[in-house]
Amino acid sequence: RKNQEVKLTNLIQIHRGSALNLQIESSDQILSQGSTPIKLILQNNGEQTLENISLPLYLNDKLTLTNLEPQKGLVEQNIWKIEELEPDEVTEIKATLLTQIPTSINDIDLNLTPEITINNTVIKQETITKDFLVSHPKVALIPSWQNNATQVSPGENLILNLNIKNEGNTDLSNLKILLP
């Protein structure tokens, strides 16, 4: 007589793509040092209600999400958590993307992967990538006095010339110079 061991395993598999569709809405170009509005949109593409949905919002030291306003669910420890999404239901989170990007970087990717947790098993969905072009605006002002003057006498007017040089990687328009 032989002893027989039986093991049961729950197996969940998602075929033909993700049950969750993620879209990233934002401009294609961002400032190297600045902020940009961004919207993340999640949709349940499946035929079943999805529960225990999460979207990790960990980015990197160059990109940070702030002012998070979820339409549904809540954000805890940089994870957008949604209890459930009905079939074809759509929800979104609005935020501000803060950037601190070195001048050596001219494009940067934002990668986000939604997850579903079923029976304590995390099932990653399709990773969505948004590629941003990085603008590095930089202006140099080069002053010079008319006739290379080095001093001004009382009651005398001197003309100061300012040359503006665009040292960045993007076109600039509607420039203003404010002098104290």
Structure commentary:
The protein has 180 residues and is an all-beta fold. The protein contains no helices and 14 strands. It has strands spanning 20-25, 29-31, 33-44, 50-56, 63-70, 74-76, 79-85, 90-100, 107-112, 115-118, 121-124, 128-135, 139-145, 160-166. It has a 5-stranded antiparallel β-sheet with strand order 6-7-4-10-11, with no helix packed on it. A 4-stranded antiparallel β-sheet has the order 1-3-8-5, with no helix packed on it. Strands 2-12-9 form a 3-stranded mixed β-sheet, with no helix packed on it. The chain starts with 19 loop residues before the first strand and ends in a 14-residue tail after the last strand. The mean pLDDT is 89.
